[in-house]
Every structure is written in structure tokens, then in C-alpha cells.
What does this fold into?
Amino acid sequence: MKSLLLGNAAVARGVWEAGAFVTSSYPGTPSTEITMNIAKYDEIYTEWAPNEKVAMEVAWGACIAGRRSFTGMKHVGLNVAADTLFTISYTGVNAGMVCAVADEPGMHSSQNEQDSRYYAKAAKVPMLEPADSAECLEFTKLAYELSEKYDTPVFIRMCTRVGHSQSVVELSDRVEPPLKEYVKNPQKYVMMPAFARARHPIVEKRISDMTEMAENTHLNRVEMSDNADMGIITSGTCYQYVKEVFGDTVSVLKLGLVHPLPVDLIKNFASKVKKLVVIEELDPVIEDHCKKLGLAVTGKDIFPICGELSPNIIAEKLNKPFNKGQKAIDAVPMRPPVMCAGCSHRGLFHVLGKIKAMVHGDIGCYTLGATPPLSAMDTTICMGGSISGLHGFVRAGGKNAVCVIGDSTFAHMGINGLIDIGYNRSDSTVIIADNSTTGMTGHQENPTTGVNIKGEPCGKMDIEMMCKACGIERVKIVDPNDLEETEKVIREEMATPGPSVIIAKRPCMLLKSSKPNPPLAVNKDKCTGCKMCMKIGCPSLSYKNGKVSVNSTLCVGCKVCMQLCKFDAFTEKGE
It folds into this structure.
């Protein structure tokens, strides 16, 4: 049976068809939908883990028990899981283990561009890169076979364009492999130095064997044309761009196994064309491999190393006539990202801007607090970095500073930083913006919500008690929509020596459990046009002809704007 699936959904289908039993992941765009789709299959135990390191360890533990497992994450999440990755490359697996990592050229929802192929090389773990949904499904199933054959975790490298685009796939039934018996083997699974030294040559032999396999596997294929003037080596979504521009008029070596890369296959392909071109997004991984083989190659000397490629860019750089069409950036009006109407973070950042605090920020939708008109965030680097960064800032003599971190991010990587503050007793005020969800990636559950990935009741981490367990004696809870109380508490805690935590608690307005209030209205006779209310950047407010108006279809009646108006111009409908 055939079906039209997103690339991410196709990976999920491949996990199911391959007979996997355990999935543990942390949400991160553009990988999130893989695990969300896996959760629809009742045969697979699926969970959101607190972070990617935990998720990878859960998946590894499951495969050691003899069941196929899966974990998914975005590129920066792999940084968190790297400690585990490098060592389980040494231990190998029992049943198959697959990790999907989604890179994001263009940084549509990420703090950096990062090429995960380097992790595959550094950890000496094979990596497959599909170019469409059909390959997403096929490569995922094959990854489990390779994992078990070569005793290794296997990467599936995704990207935004492959994961979030649809194409036709051929569906099959689920095939559950028999349980692989766990056999006690400390020399394989206990990575103390003496045993680890013995495992390293095994890892090197595995990569050598897989390099030989790369020469003949159907994952890598040559598509020769009658034109020998130019040959292109490419992979993933870039293959689709090449075919869109050139069709069958150029010879292509499509690489589906991007680590380890073949040697003779590439040399043989290069010998058949006059000019060799490598087209790849981000870093010159394939290009550097070709140069190491002594081949003259065109690559990053003409193609950008930053951002996404496109058919237009490829056609332009290779002087190929191409019907470029209108650029999306020209056809679609720009829509700057903005906090939703009624967002629980808006009042908090208004207060922080008002008191001119230096704010260490973190990863989440509240990072929008850095943008105008709020402009109330100074730094953002990585998950949990706000808390540790604040501690260092204060210890170096920094003044009038706080940090802001979300509830999901606090559970992910913020707790250790708070332990450091509690242990070393810096004068740090940590603000946890608790909106009861993982908002930025699509409102997934997390350890603080009391609900699991399937919507079932589960264990719930009490943020207040966790903060006290980290050594924080002063923990206060405020409603960030109450501007006066929020400002009062923040000023008090910043002025009091010693560590403290403020939990700014209000559920996200986009949750089904959140019920909006009736929209507000503006009394035009009272509105002076001072624009004070416009400083909070609420999308339901607009300014025209010297007066403020409320869009009643967007307004949720949070009343933050009402608290800012000195002329009582805002009213509740019905007053």
C-alpha cells in the first residue's frame, strides 16, 4: 500500500516496520514529529525524556536488553548526548539501535548551524542520509540491519527540507525480530580503561569493514548521463535540487551512506567526468574526502558554506539556465516572530525591561523577549546556559542581573546550574517561566506537566520542591500577568543577598486547558494615543489615527495592557 508521508513520519513508520520496541527522545525542531508519530504506534513504548543524553541512554539500555530501539533529536541536542554517543560506539549494541539527528541549515528554529556528519566521523558511527520520504522509511529499516550486523549504533541524518516535505512511500507490515538474549559481558559493556582499550581496535575494524561495504551498497548509486563534461557528487536534499536543475543531463553520484564514505567508487566516478563538483550543505565533508583522495574538485569555492542551498543557487553557481521563479522571500510578506496574544512571558519581560535588568536568557519561545519592543534579554547560548551564565556573571562582579529559563528547559539542563548556585551561594536570582508545556517545539509534555507523550497521567516533578532540594531557600511564585506583584518580588529578590528562585507561573494560552477571558475593548474617548500599551508588543493591539484598537479575534483578555493604561481606556466588553 502506498501513502503520502512527511519525511519525519516516514522515519517513524520505518521504526515501526523494523519491529522496534522502545523509543526515547527529546523534542527539537526539525526532529520532533518523528517521535510524535512513533507514539501513535501502540506496539512501541514511547517517551519524552528530560534531555537527549538521557534519551540516548534509555535507547541504548533497551537495545542491550535485546529489543530494537530508537532515539531522535536535533543537531544541538546531539551535543548534549555526545558523552553517551562516543562510549556506546565502543560498547556496540545487542539488538539494533538507531538515532535520527536533524540538522537545520538556515537556522529556522536553532541557535547555530551545525554539521552532524562530524559526530559520525568523530564517534566512528555510520550515518545514512535519505533524500525523500521513501528513503526515510527504507534507510531506517536498513539502519537496524546494519546496526546488528556491524554491532554499532547507526545515525539517520535528517534536515528540515527532507523531514518536513512529503513524498510517496510504500508501506509494509511490522516484522518483530525475536528477542536477543542479553549475555553478561563486562569486557564489552563496562568501559573502564582496560576494557575500553581492547574495544578501540574493534571500532576501527568496524569502520574499515563498512568502508568496504560502502563501495557496493545500493545506498550509494551512480546515475550516469551521456554528458561527461561534469559529474556531481551529492546527498540528501541537495540531490533533489540537482535533479530539479539538471534532470538526467548530468552524471550524479548520490551518496546515501555519508559515513564512512567510499574510496574506489568515488575515484571511478571521477575518472569518467571532466569536471567533478561536490554539492553539499554546510561544511565540505564530502569535498574534503575527495581532496584527500587526490581529486580535483569544485565545491565550497563556489557554493556558500552558510545557510541552505536551493535549485536557484545551484543553477546560478554552475551557470545553468533555470526557470528560477519568484523567491519566497519576495512573494510572502515578512512576519517577524512575536509572542502570542495572552502569552504568559509578555508581562514578565515588560517588568524586566522596565527595571533595566541584565537578563541571561535560555532556549524557548520566551527567547522572543530579546526582540523589540520588549528588548529585555541580553544573552542566549544553549539549554540551561542562562543559570550557569548568571552565576558566573555575578561571581565576576556583575550587577542588577537575573536569568530566565522555561519549565521544560529547567528540567532538561537547568537543574545542574541551579545546584551550582545553591552549592556556591552566589547572589543570583533565577526566574523560571513555567507555562506548563514545551511551547517552542509544538506544546509537548515534559517532566513538570504530569502527563506523558500519550496524554496519560504520569509522574510530575515539583519545580518548587526541586529548587529547594538544590539548596535554594527562597522560592517564590508569581503570576506574570500581575505586573505590580511581579515587579515587587523581582526587585525584592534582586536586592536580597543569597540565591533565590522566582517561578513565574501561568499556563500557555494555546493549551486546550487554558480558557480565554472575554476580549477587551478601547474607549476611544479615554484613549490619548500615548502608546504605553503598545510597548508590550501584543499582536491584538494596533495603532491607527492616533488611537489604539483591540482585535477581538486575537485578544484573550489577559489584561496586561489594561494595567499599563493610566487613563483607564481599556474596558471589558459588557461594562
Residues 353 and 463 are 25 Å apart (CA to CA). The first strand starts at residue 2 and ends at 6.
